[in-house]
Amino acid sequence: MSKRVSKVGWIIMAALLCVSLAILPACGGGGAIPYKNPGVFVQQTIGRIDSLDPCYCYDTASGEQIYYMYEGLLGYNGTSTDTFVGLMATDYYWVNSTSLRFNIRPGVRFSNGDNMTVADVEYSFERAMVEDPDYGPVWMFYFPLLDTYGSRNSTGNITITSAEIDHAVEVVNSTCIEFNFVRPFPATTWYQIVCGSWGSIVDKAYCVAHGDWPGSWGNWTLYNNPAQTNLVLQSRAMGTGPWALDTWTPPGEIKLVKNDYYWNAGVHAVPFDRVLTQFVDSWPSRKLALLAGDCDIAYCPRTNIADLAGVADVNAVSGLPELTIDSFYFNQNITSTTTYAGSKTLDGNGISLDFFSDINVRKGFTYAFDWATYIAQAMQGEATQRGSPFVYGLPYFNPAANMYSKNLTLAKYYLEHSAWGNLTAIGFKFTLIYNTGNLVRKTACEILANNLFAISPNFQVAVLAKDWSSTMSLIRGRTWVMFQIGWLPDYADPDNYAVPYMHSQGTFSGPASFNNATVDALIAEGAISTNTTRRQEIYYALQQAWYDQLPGIILAQPLGRRFFTKYISGFEFNPTTCGQPGNLYYMSKSES
């Protein structure tokens, strides 16, 4: 059922895709870009890597590198979000309504030469469920397999057993693995889930040799929810992908080399001997590198796209129908160790740690945002306001959903009638964070801060840039006050927006202490329902619940852009793929 409705939802998007993926040279003159670094793909971008561990990584910068070095059972078929190709699996079939088997590809080796076996596949999924880091991606395994969103309850106590994990993923024989679901689960959704970076197959022997979970159950709880610094694969990698890790010294560049053991190289050669991702915060520096041929693709802030409009030898891809969404999120229970809440009391020099638990405060901030200015200036008109995390292109998107708009009169009213008193008289002060180099998010922060100051000079919001890995730590540690974040879908279904944004254990809503039992129940029902009428009712209700409860401020759904040199070809856009280059394995670089 999920597959059928997904195809319906993608009819318009597919039509857009056919038009927008035409790669055209940028207009105008300008000097030729020299051809450099044959056999090497060089990217310059901003967001730095948080982790190379597939069970911990839940950001696009990290996920992109994991995709280069690892593979899962399945991958997406080109630009499709609901058809698949076998990677570590050759084929798959349902034994019954709750048991799914994958036949594992023979003859595959990890980049260190180890043979990949069915035991590695079992270990990869069980390891993820054993370790299950806070606010990571493993909830996508837990819900369909064990009917829970993680291994721990709200107080941090483990609530599942080793027998449950062990039964969820079973070795059938030397070539076959079986997943046992707690109830019938939409097949396409599970196929999409295992396509993600969290579905990567890791080398069991390599992990165990470096001190990871040994694969036995006697002391498995000791490995649950490890600190990021204790992750065995935090800065190591051992996968079956086209490339292998050479060096990564956080926060510097990461260098990958061709995997000499890559299983598919005889059919399709690995196109680059090396892949370099360089983290450069300055747009002028990235621009100079692109025009000098020192990089093959550069992240260009949307506010600067005119800088490349007249440049020869730049291939500009535009109009990409992204499924991403950007938003602010309110932290309703800030950790007391925060350094971003001023005095940590509502005395004019800070905010209380529960400041955003009041709906009137959240409404006041929301009415203070100016979407028209944001879309025109920051997004260069290439985005559409959305009223909830659910975006156009998904099943059950409600085009008539309620949305807020800038209204400083209403903003002032709600802030004067907060649970904490008249805030225009009391005042507040805190720091609003965005990730370094992201000028679009910087603009959004400044729009909000300036409008609040226009309401009252007692409203003081500082805007601060932090590197990407630091911002991820702030989210997990709940030390942020109000944070701007974006979401790239794990799978193209509204459930994958409902859980992270609205569930009490969600990636954003969990650390923000948003908790609504009715919302949780709707999300759980929507995830497994096969009744299309009921699913629409559920997701329409969740879109209204966002408007009513206001966990955060949803900004806009953008159209995407990419800027390559003319020497790169083969780019394919899939809205679920991490990173700007897309599927690098099917790209090439040539002077001719």
Describe the structure in your own words.
This protein has a domain at 325-558: Dipeptide-binding Protein, domain 3 (Roll). Helices cover 30% and strands 19% of the residues. The protein has 18 helices and 22 strands. Helix 10 runs antiparallel to helix 12 (408-416) and helix 16 (495-502) packs antiparallel against helix 17. The longest helix has 18 residues, at 532-549. The radius of gyration is 24 Å and the shape is globular. The model is unreliable at 1-30 (pLDDT under 50).
Strand content: 15-25%
Kindly report the CATH topology of the domain at 325-558.
Dipeptide-binding Protein, domain 3
CATH superfamily of the domain at 325-558: Dipeptide-binding Protein, Domain 3
Cross-sheet strand order for the largest sheet: 9-10-11-2-12
| Amount of helix | 25-40%
Inertia-based shape: globular
Mean pLDDT over the full residue set? 92
- The CATH class of the domain at 325-558, by name, is Alpha Beta
CATH architecture of the domain at 325-558: Roll
Write the layout of secondary structure elements.
Layout: H1 2-9, H2 11-20, E1 24-25, E2 40-45, H3 60-69, E3 74-76, E4 84-86, E5 89-96, E6 99-104, H4 118-131, H5 139-146, H6 162-168, E7 169-173, E8 176-180, H7 187-194, H8 204-209, E9 243-248, E10 254-258, E11 274-279, H9 283-291, E12 297-298, E13 314-321, E14 325-330, H10 359-367, H11 371-378, E15 383-385, H12 408-416, H13 423-426, E16 428-435, H14 439-455, E17 459-466, H15 468-477, E18 482-487, H16 495-502, H17 517-528, H18 532-549, E19 552-554, E20 556-565, E21 568-569, E22 588-589
Parallel strand pairs: 2-11, 2-12, 16-17
Antiparallel strand pairs: 1-13, 3-4, 5-6, 6-8, 7-8, 9-10, 10-11, 13-20, 14-18, 14-19, 15-20, 21-22
